Amino acid sequence: MQQAYEGTAEQDTNNSMPARCPIDHSAISQQKTPKFIEPVGAAIEYDEAANVWHIRSFEAARTILRSPNTKQAGFNAELITRIPNQKNTPILYQEGKVHQQQRKQTARFFTPKAVSDNYRQLMENLSDELIRKLKGKKEIDLSRLSMKLAVRVAGEIVGLTNSRMPGLDRRIEAFFDGRIEQGTGKLSKKLRAIWSQRKMLNFFYLDVKPAIEARRRNPKQDVISHLLEQKYSEVEILTECVTYGAAGMITTREFISVATWHLLEQPELRKRYLAASQEERYMILHEILRLEPIVGNLQRRATADITLKSNGEEIIIPNNALINIHIHGSNSDEKVVGDYPRVIYPGRELQGDHIPDMLMSFGDGVHRCPGAYVAIQETDIFLSRLLALPTLHIKQKPKISWSDLVTGYEIRDFLIAVD
């Protein structure tokens, strides 16, 4: 049995958008990536059979993500945190003062000034290199091109720059390859375990260990050097590198692809993007990201009772409850975004205080994505060059699948071409 707490249907009218009409604006959609269409009106919903609270309201989502009475429950958190003899829990799964201190110490790698000063030139050079590759080949799979860019940039920030052989992008991608994920029998489980260990060992010996050895001799301003300074073991550093691989490489790769897809299919938006200032270009990218969040769900476990309000009613989520925050739903909350919540409309008037253009797409609270500025600057630098190619067009629309681990979409076989 499911119990739903519905929000009101009343909405503010944005004067710069089409006037209200009898058509259900929430049903008009430009979204390409959701696995499921989120139900309208079910702001807070309790699934008694699964014992899970589902959140689709922006304000409720923000309250939970900012609450001190929750802990990370997604991305295999409750499995990772039970690993024995683990002195330093990966930052994604840390909580409380330990997490706050680590975020404070690593923030210097991700500030807008640090990203621009230290990595803008790299982003520009890599983008120019990849554009030349496209021009030479005439057509290329954008999902592979964007992966190379994302891996090189995040690799510099993390410190994965001393690989024993090429192919870091393929080894990172292998962690999220679901080809051996089918089957529930003992043999299938054993095969998955062997395959996972093989991937992890390859990544460690070819990429992580040489990076650690290089930084023991010559520390740099990167994450691995910082972790060595904090006395992290090699295994703990490996775990952090896998975490950053998911957070900083895979997600940016997907966003570059989906943003390109939208901009190539909407010529006027592409024209506006190319003529815009950096501030306006970022606004356009944020709006696309609002519509197409890379991570579709965030999960938290309540560590005390949490009180929420919905439609004038007080709702208590009890201690130890599992909470599933639906990012597509909260990002399409008409109380915040107004009419046409599933349409790209850069500069839409948001209702509420201190609401970012992309809403919940980078999360919120203590676990908000630290690499948000990296992803947007990197995407903008690359797309400013890519979309400026006058004959650029889609040769083959991509295939979309979904990753259960990051609850996000995967865009593959996206052929783009120039004449």
TrEMBL record:
Pfam families: p450. SUPFAM superfamilies: Cytochrome P450. It comes from the Bacteria. Keywords: Heme, Iron, Metal-binding, Monooxygenase, Oxidoreductase. The keyword Repressor does not apply. InterPro entries: Cyt_P450 (IPR001128), Cyt_P450_B (IPR002397), Cyt_P450_CS (IPR017972), Cyt_P450_sf (IPR036396). Belongs to the cytochrome P450 family. This is Cytochrome P450.
